[in-house]
Amino acid sequence: MTELLFRDDAYLRSCDATLIAADDKGLRFDRTVFYPTGGGQPGDTGVARFADGTTIAIVDAVKGATPDEVVHVIAPDVPRPAPGSRAVLELDWDRRHRLMRMHTCLHLLSAVLPYPVTGGQVSDGKGRLDFDMSEAPPDKDAITAKLNELVTSDRPVRFRWVTDAELDGNADLVKTMSVKPPRGSGRVRLIEVDGLDLQACGGTHVSRTGEIGPVRVRKIESKGRQNRRVLLEFEGTP
Ligand SMILES: [Zn+2]
Fold it and tell me: Does the pTM of the predicted model rise above 0.85?
């Protein structure tokens, strides 16, 4: 089990950690700031700087045997340090911050378009949500204008923990149909965009919507009779 520091502070860029195990795939530490791939958000990248001066590139982070275990993926030909080695884990912060901004923006999009969400994905500089929506979607410029209005309103984004039992008693909290919140650890984290959106989510978020910056709807695609895919990108993306 890995102590997941990003869950309580998404702004931590680095941490001290002790190597627990190393195998073909990568490294497991006692604690980490690296978010593992899940919930439509890619795993973090960065480096591990070991006490002996060795620096190892972390090319991805994925969940291990249990959801609370993070495997820091490294190249297969890199020699594995011995368990017990101390290291400083450092994120590629610029990339992670872009992922946090876009991820938070998808919460705004789910409020602008109040339809059931059937899927979603964040990538570097881009994001999308799939909606179960039979009627024609609003004009993409209208969605862009509404999103940027919510961004510039600079609303606080907060989180709080609830037990699985509390969540089961309030199914409306689970808005997404295919991207399930992490469960099984006895509690889940609720993300609230002030006055706008409340849902269970395990990803990383910025603390105010103003930090997202200008965004636009790149396009809206029809995916079958019922589904509409809305693709976002940051303003200024080539
Ligand atoms: Zn989220």
Answer: yes
